[in-house]
Write a structure and sequence with these properties.
mainly beta, 1 helix, WD40/YVTN_repeat-like_dom_sf
């Protein structure tokens, strides 16, 4: 088995390629893709890497992954109606989901058997900034966050009998909390939604029959008072200079479902929340300092490592995860290019 890591560099317009060998991170080179290349996602069969360009003309670039060398070879570009900030692929490897913050839209592109994207995307118009558009573990539901409206929307996924992503449920958060990214529990019965400006995680019970979400609790994802942070502000209200404010970004669940990891950019930390057996509500367990201004990070499929980039960092870092405490310890680092944005990990046989 070989493990390749890909890191998009928005300002440089490249994707950096790496290979992990034990606890070493080897820089293999950089692939030119285009200015403001940011979110990426790997196909479920690990054959292709899809990357979105956020500068007009907006498109998604499909790159073939060489399973022996990790080399990326561009296959094609599919025009998109908007600038996309997040990508996902459904569990059937049949649809690519995209979220547009700038243009308030979520889209679905059909994936052909050869990995090509359909030229015409199904668009779901929203009232606020869409920060994430993800699929449930059972592949039946689509969930979109609306940053500007402080809302999450649930849609019924497309199928042979359903050709429209019908809205089935909405939940409204506290004003200016800023729902951003989300993750489902391993069983699919709970959803954890990270709010950027409150740096909190909202825990929901998820009804797999109806797609409805019921709030169970809201927990602190980072100790704002201890870190010297005030509540964050939406982009339109931010001023310079200002007091340090919460600026949460990404959230991931460990392979064993025991720890939630959350990145906070102002203090450059990744915090961990522990989930105990029989209780879906996580509890804050600590944090670790990581790369400068961490936006995107990824966990390896075996659950042993975390890879993080920082928007103001000049490298990507590899951290080992302590199986008992969830604590991170840096093992290695490798250079990257300007404004690293998104991390993807691929394990190939």
């Amino acid at each position: 088995m070989k493990r390749f890591i890909y890191l998009s560099n928005a300002e440089s317009g490249t994707i950096s390629r790496y290979q992990q060998q034990d606890q070493q991170l080897i820089h293999l080179g950089n692939t030119d893709v285009g200015n403001l290349v940011m979110p990426m996602v790997v196909s479920r069969d690990n054959r292709f890497l899809y990357a979105a360009l956020r500068e007009a003309p907006y498109c998604i670039v499909r790159l073939a992954i060489d399973p022996l060398t990790g080399e990326l070879t561009e296959q094609d570009r599919t025009q998109q109606p908007a600038s996309m900030v997040n990508l996902d692929i459904d569990h059937g490897n049949q649809w690519l989901l995209s979220a547009s913050f700038n243009h308030n839209v979520a889209t679905l592109n059909r994936l052909e058997e050869d990995g090509r994207l359909s030229q015409h995307a199904l668009e779901i118009q929203l009232d606020g900034h869409c920060h994430a558009f993800n699929v449930s573990p059972d592949n039946q539901w689509l969930v979109a966050t609306e940053f500007g409206q402080d809302r999450v929307n649930v849609y019924r996924h497309l199928s042979a009998n359903n050709h429209e992503a019908a809205l089935v449920h909405q939940y409204f958060f506290a004003r200016e909390s800023g729902p951003r990214h989300l993750v489902f529990s391993k069983c699919g019965q709970f959803v954890y939604v990270l709010c950027e400006m409150s740096a909190s995680v909202n825990v929901f019970a998820f009804d797999n029959e109806t797609g409805s979400m019921a709030l169970i609790d809201e927990v602190e994802a980072a100790p704002l008072e201890a870190l010297g942070l005030e509540k964050g502000l939406p982009p339109a209200k931010r001023v310079t200079p200002d007091v340090p404010r919460a600026w949460a970004a990404d959230i991931h669940l460990s392979k064993d479902g025991r720890f939630l990891y959350v990145s906070e950019r102002t203090t450059s930390i990744i915090s961990r929340l522990e989930i105990m057996p029989g209780d879906p509500v996580p509890h804050y367990a600590g944090y670790d300092h990581v790369v400068t201004q961490p936006r995107s990070f990824a966990l390896t499929p075996d659950g042993q490592y975390l890879l993080a980039s920082g928007e103001l960092a000049d490298h990507i870092a590899l951290y080992h995860i302590d199986a008992q405490t969830g604590q991170l310890s840096q093992q290695n680092r490798a250079p990257c290019q300007a404004m690293p944005a998104w991390v993807s990990v691929v394990d190939v046989a």
